[in-house]
Structures are given as structure tokens and as C-alpha cells.
Design a protein that fits this description.
It is a single chain. With 166 residues, the protein is an all-alpha fold. It is built from eight helices and no strands. The longest helix has 27 residues. The protein is globular.
Amino acid sequence: MKNIKLWSVSGLVFTALLGTLAHFFYDWSGENPLIGLVCPVNESTWEHMKLIFFPVVVWSLFLPCVLMEEYPALRPALLAGGISGTLAVPVLFYTYSGVLGRNVAWVDIGIFYISVMIAFLLTWKLKDSEKTYEKRAAVYLMTALLIVLFFLFTCTPPDIGLFAEP
């Protein structure tokens, strides 16, 4: 149990740190289009969803075999949590900015960290679930679909609010 707690906290910190730094990677790379596929290329809500999604996907690749044996639902739980945290970004952003009629930078930053917490709290809740393990193919398919959509919509964003810069 100690290892799963350490792994979970480490993943949360990894995601928060990498997501924070990833906000700047595209500019730091000289606007490298490959970096832009996985890091925000502008200030749209869609692009900021990458800040949670891709660090969680990367963290899922570092799952120790011993944890996978003890918690077979861990990878799909992490990816489902990551998808939920990713989707929390627009839900929280549009809810508060709709109520206030504007957005506030420090609240936007807080939404990122709240969404990371949502991702890892859901991961923790689902890690022991047989249903999560049984639904792993659907979670992997949704993860793959989101990767494709992030790549596609980075290159050709639809003309709707989610893709517009505030």
C-alpha cells in the first residue's frame, strides 16, 4: 500500500510540474510544430487541456510492473482519471468565467491544479475496481481518440469558442 501512495503522489507532482512547464515548451522550442502537438500553441481552452492529458499519458508509461500486478486496473484508472481531469478544465473554466463574465488569470491557474487533483483522486478511487479493468479497452480507445483529436485540432482548429483564444 505504501508504494501505491508514493507512486500516486509522485504522479500528481510529476503531472503538475510537467504541465506547468509544458505551458512554455512551445515558445521555448522556437514554435517547433512537433512540440506543439503535445503542448499548448496558444491560450485557447482546448490547448490548455493538453497540460493535464499528456503528462498523465507519459506517467502511465512509467507504471512499475510490481504495481501493475497488485493493481491490474491501475493504468486504465490513471488514464480515465487523466481524461476526467482534462475534461474538468473546460467545465470549470466556462462555469466560473460564465458566472463572472470574464476570466481571471490566477483562477485559470488554480483550475489547472484542481483538475490535476481530480485526475489523481479519480485514479485512486478506480485503481481497485474490477469494472475499470473490464472497461480498459474503452479507456485505451478514448485515450487514443483524444490523442488524435489533439493532433488534428492543433493543426486545424474548428471555428468554435473552445478553440478560440480568450
